[in-house]
Amino acid sequence: MIKTFTQDDVIRYVYEETSPEENLLIEDALMSEPDLMTFFLEALELRALMNKIEREPRVSTVQSILNYSRNHPSNPPTRQRQL
């Protein structure tokens, strides 16, 4: 029986979610199916580009979270001890 690999299989391969046995079969399929190889190369490029993305929340968002935390009922203000 010949196994037909899909783009989903290639994505699993790109993210190293396949077994060693599956890797060999997928690699053979990539060598014999130009469309699958093209998809594989595009998936590798997209993965590399996505790994470069750095996201940060806006300062106002962080400030809102901190304000909420300070004023939350389960977090009463700290009382200073009198000596």
From TrEMBL:
Residues 64-83 are annotated as: Disordered. The lineage of its organism: Bacteria, Pseudomonadati, Bacteroidota, Cytophagia, Cytophagales. It comes from Spirosoma profusum. This is Uncharacterized protein. It comes from the Bacteria.
